[in-house]
Amino acid sequence: MARRIGHAAPETTPILRIGGFTRLTTIDYPGELAAIVFCQGCPWRCRYCYNTDLLDARTDGLIPWSDIRGFLKQRIGLLDGVVFSGGEPTAQGALETAMQETRAFGFKVGLHTSGVYPDRLRALLPLIDWVGLDIKALPDDYPAITGVSDSGQRAWESLSILLTARVPMEVRTTLMPDWTPEQIATLAHALADAGVKNYCVQACDSRRALDETLAPSAMPMSERIGLVERERFGRFVVRGK
Q1: I want to staple 18 with a disulfide (CB 3.0 to 4.6 A). Which of 63, 77, 220, 240 is the partner?
Q2: pTM of this prediction?
C-alpha cells in the first residue's frame, strides 16, 4: 500500500483516517479499474486478519483525504471506481462525505465491509454501487473469530439489508483452518438459503494472521469445499489452495 501521494492543504472536518492507498487494482472491484482507499481502524480482532496495521482506530491517518481527492481529479476518465476498504470503513463518520465527493467526480463507489454497523451501512446505500461483504461464519460462531459477542448478529443483519436493497455484491468467507467440510457446507448452504448468489470462499493465510497460533489446514481446498452444492449459487469462486 502506498503511504503518501504528495503535499496537501490542511483537511477540513470530519477527517477520514487513511492508512494506505492503492492507485490501481483490477481485482478488488469486479469488472472495473479501481483505486483502493484503506481506512484506519476496526472494532473487531479477527484471528486471521492480515491488515493488522489498520486495526488501531487511534492511529492517525497516514494519507490526507485531500491527497486522494487530488489524485482522483487527475484520473477522471481513466479509472472506473474507488473502493473503500480497511480496516472497517463504516467505523468512520467521515466515510459518507468521502463517498459523496468520489461520486461527484463520476466514479463508482465500492465498499469492503464486515457488516459491523448495519445502521450506518443502511444510511450509505444511496452512495454505494457494489459491496464486498465478509460473512465469517454462522451468527453463533462469530465470537470465536472476532472476539466480539454480538458480531454475528450485526454481520447477518447487514447481509439482510444488502439483499433486500438488491445492492450488487460478493459475499466472501475466509475459511478457518480447523473447519470441516461439513461446517463449510452448512455455512455455504445457509447463505444460499438467505438469497446469496455471488459467493467466494478463500483460504486463510496463517503466515500473516493476527493470531500467531493459527496453523494452515492440512486438507486441500478442493476437499474442504467438496460438500458445497455450488449449483445453488449463480457464481461460486475459490481463492487460495
Answers
A1: 63
A2: 0.91
pLDDT category of residue 60 using cuts at 50, 70 and 90? confident
Question: For 163-197, what is each residue's pLDDT tens digit?
Answer: 999 999 999 999 999 999 999 999 999 999 999 99
Rounded to the nearest 5°, which phi and psi values hold at 174?
-85, 125
* 205 in any annotated domain: no
Residue 199 has phi, psi (to 5 degrees) of -130, 135
Q: Which helix (H) or strand (E) holds 96?
A: helix 95-104
Looking up cell 460462531 gives: 141
**What secondary structure does DSSP assign to 184-223, as a single string?**
HHHHHHHHHHHT--EEEEEE--GGG-SSTT----SS-HHH
* Residues present in the chain in total: 241
Q: What is the pLDDT of residue 139?
A: 98
CATH number for the domain that contains residue 62: 3.20.20.70
CA distance 189 to 227: 10
83: in domain: yes
For position 1, what pLDDT does the model report? 42
- Residues 68-102: pLDDT tens digits? 999 999 999 999 999 999 999 999 999 999 999 99
Range of the domain at 95: 18-170
Ramachandran angles phi, psi of 39, nearest 5°: -80, 145
